[in-house]
Amino acid sequence: MADKINVGVLGATGMVGQRYIKLLEDHPWFKVTYVAASPRSAGKAYKEAVANRWLIGANIPCDVKDLIVQDANDPKAALGKCRFVFSALEMGKDEIKALEAAYAAEGIPVVSNASANRWTEDVPMLIPEINYSHLDVIAEQKKHHGWDKGFVAVKPNCSLQTYMMPLYALQQAGYPVKRMIVTTLQAVSGAGYPGVPSFDMIDNIVPYIGGEEEKTEKECLKILGSVKDGKIENAAGPIVSSTCTRVPVIDGHTASVNLEFDLPEDKKPSLEEVLKVWENFKSLPQELKLPSAPEHPIVYREEENRPQPNRDRDTEKGMACVLGRLRKCNVFDIKFVALSHNTKRGAALGGILNAELLKAKGFFD
Asked: What's this protein's family per the entry (predicted)?
């Protein structure tokens, strides 16, 4: 216990903040010692601040329930109480961006779940199995702002977790992708709490989620980009066209993916070769044996009716990308169905994996 790093959670009373609190309960590296939220929660014991709205379905961790909630708008209050913070802030983007920068300026690194800094050129937007090399930009970020120990790192939109690893695995194996069509079927938990009204979701599908299609089409280019001249330069492709829908599922985002390879016909992989790439894919988190890293980041289901959110979202403790229904596409080259757990890999547990990678690479020393 003495060797654990003390961490804080900003936005600790919200849905994602609560997931951070619960997922960190028995973490081998990190211990929650600081919680902060809005001024209306500040000054209360954590158990009082979340009374009647603890949403996780298990008891509040004993080490956290009596912590006094601080005002998240006061970064100085965190000094000496934690080494870094997880950001699950629920505010306007400009407010979040300014507040995360304020914590970094105080020497407190920020591992963020928020979207405010995803398009900041010198902020890495991490899926650890894919773009761990983007950590190199942090030195330039600190230099640019004049920060000593503080910095900001973020995770991408939850819907990208469904298809980015299988896409990246194919690219790394020498099968570049030219174009993709992605249709997402996103769980209601992705809208937060209380989320989408029941009258909109029961016996219904909502064929629009504000801002999601833009994120799906553009964030992948930053993730696949490279660090150049102190900033992250986006990849030129693939071209992505997306349709994002909300479906009556609690947890687990599904995506139907059609993709075309940027290769001559005789160089394109067979279905068997695609499956072999996915089956053998592992990356730095697996090499480092990070506590939250799945042993098998991509899992393929042979059954013709899988993956299914209810049955497959918790594969590898909710950290795997679960694939199925790989087949030839009459328009592009191949098509498949992908699933990821949006509130684990796509949210808090994905943020925790980012922090584990940062620790393993010495960014909290």
From this structure: Belongs to the aspartate-semialdehyde dehydrogenase family.
Could you tell me where the beta strands, DSSP code E, fall in 247-292?
Answer: 253-261
Of 82, 220, 244, 253, which residue is the catalytic one?
Answer: 253
User: How many whole angstroms separate alpha carbon 151 and alpha carbon 171?
Assistant: 30
Written as one letter, the residue type at 49 is A
* Fold agreement between 5-157+348-360 and 158-340: no
Cα separation, 188 vs 126, in Å, equals 24
Residue 134 one-letter amino acid? H
At the topology level of CATH, where does 5-157+348-360 sit?
Rossmann fold (3.40.50)
* Catalytic option among 82, 158, 220, 321: 158
CATH homologous superfamily of domain 158-340? Answer: Dihydrodipicolinate Reductase; domain 2 (3.30.360.10)
Pairing of strands 30-37, 5-10: parallel
Confirm if 338 and 158 have CB atoms less than 8 A apart.
Answer: no
Of 12, 108, 10, which Cα lies nearest the Cα of 64?
12
Q: What pLDDT is stored for residue 1 in this prediction? A: 43
Q: Look at strands 334-340 and 321-328 and give their pairing.
A: antiparallel
Asked about 134 being catalytic, the answer comes back as no
Q: CB under 8 Å to 250, separation ≥6 — which residues?
A: 187, 188, 189, 309
> If you search the block for the tokens 């299988």, which residue do you land on?
166
Residue-range domain boundaries for the chain: 5-157+348-360, 158-340
Q: What's the residue count for the chain?
A: 365
Give the strand pairing for 298-301 and 321-328: parallel
CA dist 10 and 348 (Å) reads 12
Is this prediction's pTM over 0.85? yes
Token pair recorded at residue 203: 């016996």
Helix residue spans in the chain (DSSP H) = 15-23, 46-49, 62-65, 93-105, 128-131, 137-145, 164-172, 198-201, 212-223, 271-280, 284-288, 309-312, 348-360
User: For residue range 272-284, what is the model confidence (pLDDT) as tens digits?
Assistant: 999 999 999 999 9
Q: In what order do the strands lie in the sheet with 30-37?
A: 70-71, 30-37, 5-10, 84-87, 110-112, 152-154
Q: What stretches in the chain show pLDDT beneath 70?
A: 1-2
pLDDT for position 2:
54
Cα gap 135→97, rounded to integer Å: 19
Which residues make Cβ contacts (< 8 Å) with residue 40, sequence separation at least 6? none
Could you confirm whether 341 is annotated as catalytic?
Answer: no
